[in-house]
Amino acid sequence: MSLYAIGDLHLHFQSELKARSQLKDRVWRNHEEKFRKNCEKMISGDDTLVLVGDHSWGKNLEQCEQDLEYIRDLPGRKILTRGNHDMFWDAKKTNRLNELFRPNLTFLQDSYETYRDYALVGTKGYIFEGPYYLNRYGQIIGWDEEAAEKAKKLVSRELGRLRTSFELAKADGYRRFIMFLHYPPTNILEERSGYTDMAEEYGAEQVIYAHSHGESRFYDSIHGEYRGRRYSLVSGDFLKWKPMKVLD
Ligand SMILES: [Fe+2]
Ligand SMILES: [Fe+2]
To answer: How far apart are the CA of 83 and the centre of ligand 2, in A?
Structure first.
């Protein structure tokens, strides 16, 4: 029995492909096929796979049907968290999605799931991504203050959702946590953030995140051991479509 994670599948069986990199970069060519084959090799029926957002380019549930069917047909138990492109998933209507797809898919929002004696907690997260102003050497010399203020509000809402997830698990007696985000835990200006602080406060052993795809963004945030926990980027293209083993 193992726990795996990956993010940013960006499926588009029924919808318009919006990212140019997905059209031209080799790593994205037939990525659905590569990923399915890797899952079939690595994952068995009693394993769990957490998909950390940006599942589909579809604008609504109808346009995501085949994408969600593809995920449903992967081996193992599947838990999904929200990404910024998941337009089919209104956070407030998560119960409805769970009713529709039970028992094949679990949509995690303002709740937690379990794996052995661990609670799997998480939320989409959010970080300030610019616009940044650069000098002629490509160094950051400033940023859009108004956009930064707006980002602060979204960060605080997501931190609230993350705390809910931790608190529900804690109230049920869980003391070991794996924390899942879609966005990286820090923006490119930060060394630590509300997310890293919360991971430390509750003692999460690992922080798993995605969203940074395309080689130039792979190292935008924390990799490896940092202040007592392990941080891992699991964007599909970074992992070359092999889900990362989180726990045995
Ligand atoms: Fe993405
Ligand atoms: Fe994303």
So the answer is: 5
